[in-house]
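Q: I have 227 residues here and want to know how they pack in 3D. Can you give me a structure?
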Amino acid sequence: MTTKRCLVLLAVLLGMSAVFFLPKHHFQPLGIELKLPVTVGDWTGEDLKITDEEIGILGPGTEFARKGYTNRRGDQLQVTIVLSGHDMNTSIHRPERCLVAQGWSLTASPSVAVAVPARGSLETKALKVIKMVNSDGRTIPYTNLNYYWFVGCADTTASHFQRWLIDKADRLFRGYNQRWAYFTVAATVTENLQRNGRSETETAAMVEDFIKGLVPPTHLASVKFGS
């Protein structure tokens, strides 16, 4: 290894180690409202229980909000907010991990930009997961679409790695931590499950339209969006 490379590596290691010497409880204000609205356009929501297993897996100080939403057509969505506690390593993670652990198979995970009126473009990750479920004596596939994104004090991203980079830069160069939150909006593709069910394309459009209405009451004006 050349001297130049050694110096670069040493600088990186020193920079990363500096994180541990910064103040541990200098947190920025939240960028979200940890309260889901009762109505979002045509949708009406009811609180859903956070399971003991979820609470036990995530770190102390983690906070939650969850509602199930239904519209007049009978469509259903589930929305969850997870707000990190003081230990980011145990509070925030990619939803892919939970879904796979719950028996879902991940088949696609494209990035989807949702144009939020008067706010800009919100980057989301759209997970398509499938699980085989027994129903009336037969095994049928359930397809679920899960859109998620992370929200900090002033930033949004659908990339777990980018969120990590922003977090480390804040600690190193600004001397503060953020309590990140992540949002998930999930819906089942009902095309082959019920009469007049929605196709995958229709379900995706429905979820994205819902997100446009969900963001304004839950994301503070301080949070930046893409152009």
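Q: Anything worth noting?
A: The chain has six helices and ten strands. Strands lie at 39-40, 43-47, 63-70, 76-83, 105-108, 111-116, 120-135, 138-151, 156-157, 181-188.
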